[in-house]
Specification:
4 helices; toxin-antitoxin system; Arc_rbn_hlx_hlx
């Protein structure tokens, strides 16, 4: 038996979802049904729900320093490949 659900969604997200569903040849109702079935099969979210640490100035600086270090370590290899 079918039943209805009512919930709020951001209008921009709704429009983007509708456009993607249209491109896939399905309705938003079909997309939500696919999600609901995946949710039931997984007995929870069918994808990881995590809290990601924000990129901070310190972590960005470390990331850039690590990148510089890696590039320096492999500079000779890059030079050899270019020859």
């Amino acid at each position: 038996m079918d039943s209805n659900m009512t919930f709020r969604i951001d209008s921009e997200v709704k429009a983007q979802m509708a456009a993607i569903c249209d491109a896939l040849g399905m309705s938003t109702s079909t997309a939500f049904n696919i999600f609901a079935n995946a949710f039931v099969r997984a007995k929870g979210m069918p994808f990881a729900v995590t809290i990601q640490e924000p990129v901070t100035a310190v972590s960005r600086e470390k990331m850039l320093a690590d990148t510089d270090q890696l590039l320096s370590e492999f500079a000779s290899d890059y030079k050899r490949m270019a020859e």
